[in-house]
Structure prediction request, 520 residues.
Amino acid sequence: MAKSYEEINARIARGEAVVLTAEEVSRMAEEASPAEIARKVDVVTTATFGAMCSSGCFINFGHTSPPIRMESITLNGVPVFAGIAAVDAYIGATETSPDDPAYGGAHVIESLVRGEEVHLVARGKGTDCYPKKSADTWISKDGVNEITMVNPRNAYQNYPAACNSTERILYTYMGSLLPRFGNVNYSTSGELSPLLNDPCLRTIGVGTRVFLGGAQGFVSWRGTQFNTEKPRSERGLRESNAATLMLTADVKEMSPDFLRAAYFEKYGVTIYLGVGIPLPILDEEMAAAVSIRNRDIPALVCDYGLDGHPPILRTNYEELRSGYIELEGKKVRTAPLSSLSRARAIAALLKLRVSSGAFPIAPPVQALPARSSVSGLSERGRTR
Amino acid sequence: MKHRYILEYSSAMVDEPIIYTLIKDFDVKVNILRAEVSPGHEGSMLVELEGEGENISRGMDYLSGKGIRLMTIAQSLSFREELCVDCGSCAGVCFSGCLSMDAEKWELVVDREKCIACGLCVKACPFGLFSLKFGD
Prediction:
């Protein structure tokens, strides 16, 4: 029995829609068949709250009088990309303050979201139409014209866990990895994770409405490093990092509960973001897709102590969540890097928003690529 | 009863056989879990003291009399809990079991009694929420 988007939205409008979180539907799937789930459930909410380095915001400061063509800009001392028009800029989340390696673009973004003032210093060469050569002032999210998050790569479809075979501690974007396989860190929300619940991306594409950092935003494009060539498990799930999303939303509507600046020791600044996507249960195939349980989701464990971080074990999220896995004949402690409790809060919030009609479900305007692979970078210049 | 304390010495005290005195004169079992002591510098030591209550309190008076500052782990490890997002990054490095994730709610559980002041959580927390007073 198939349901259309219109039928699902009509059920939402009548207050009759059944909206569950992806964890709730996974519990339901212990008893119910995909056919029953397709009949009973209209929408399933998915979510994650983790580090997403490839993130940042476009900002338009407004013009000073007389105007300046801002050619180099800092916000709270953090360099901001100024190579676009006179008073447009892009704050990258991982951009770092030259004075403090643990402070960067993500902290500036978080401050703006919190409603705090941020120190803007700008310089330009002075032109006939933009005569001013420097500006020094304080800005806030309410005072600027636009502040729009545009994240080139978010919400990875699966991501390998990390460990370390070397004799020394490694400080990585997968956290502190203790020597001699002292721990394993993993970073997806498992059965609650957005792209794992729609493995063929039938309902997620360009134009899909998403929850981003507390605001309602959209999938604006395929994410960078979008990869359809990663192997699939028996259940059709990607074995490791595959599809990604480019996401956009208004920073003025975001909340610090779902956006937090972070610093990984000796790696650098990054941002933790909450992302949530409601999935329409159009038919049995979608019902089967959202029924996945942690034990069904493959997880590779990669050794960050070796070049290229090769996988040394294939496990699943139920094992990772148990607190320990067996690795190289040893019982090794496992820990998450992304917050499952925050992801659950997002999925629950999204459930309310969808049920109330505040978060309409719509088909993608354009599907994400069916085929796309990722290349490396070959170096032809002189390597120093 | 076992109790964990951090002892902080001035540089003048580093040469004194304090642990020997604690064991011999006060009959206190001392288990040194971590120490940063070098001649001519200030020192820090994480110890577990075990013995009769009265012996321990006399031993502690002796330490205080020598100008050694005693801190419990609770005083030494500070954690800005209100900013925690329960990501779990700290639990991955905490081999003493002080920091762990609740397997139902997936919220961080802090059991300060298990802390051994290793300091790994200070660097592992992406939000810089831990600080530890030990050495330095």
User: Anything to note?
Assistant: Chain A touches chain B at residues 49-51, 102, 169, 171, 175-176, 178, 182-185, 260-265, 270, 272, 321, 323, 333-342, 344 (CB under 8 Å).
